[in-house]
Amino acid sequence: MTTDEELYQQVMAELDWDLALEAKRILVHVRDGTVTLSGEVSSHAEKWHAEEAVSQVSRVVALINNIEVIVSSNHVRTDNDIVSAAVNALEWNTSLAGHEISVNVSDGWLVLSGEVGSDHQRQTAGYAVRYLQGVRGINNDITVNAHACPDTIKADIESAFRRRASIDAHGIEVLVNHGEVTLTGAVASLPELEMARSTASGTAGVQRVVSRLIVSSHR
Q: What is the CATH number that goes with domain 150-215?
């Protein structure tokens, strides 16, 4: 069984190894398998990347990201500049064609609003603006307007789970209520948890995914 100290060393090694991160600015605390990140990074993208890196480490059962974004002087952009860049990024994304998405920025915080046809498209919009310079944080307030039979949604998600080698479908229960999907059960790792959530999100008719999955070393 991995101790908290061993897990701490593994997380630090992963952060040090990742060339996209300035690991010396990131602080790590581990307790009972839960990793808390703090410190400072120079962009929202780097904060997200740190979270992604740690989630790949075996035996991490939960992750709390308290890293603060302090935009470096050479990457500071005005709110108007960020709005223009975000609008262009969204307009050029083929997955979002035909959808009107509004962008508002205040002090580097970017807010997306509007309506799309799937939760996958909602997340795609967030991905499209994640790496823009000057962004300190993103609030994705886009709503989803999609309709499908709950039984069909449930069957499609469960079928997709069974097709994926990285997901143990037997450990996950799928509940559907008016387009909102709730996932419960246990998975073996954070990457498996994220794959399950992403797979459900990409299913036709899904408006929102609530993950109540837990990571268990006994899976």
A: 3.30.1340.30
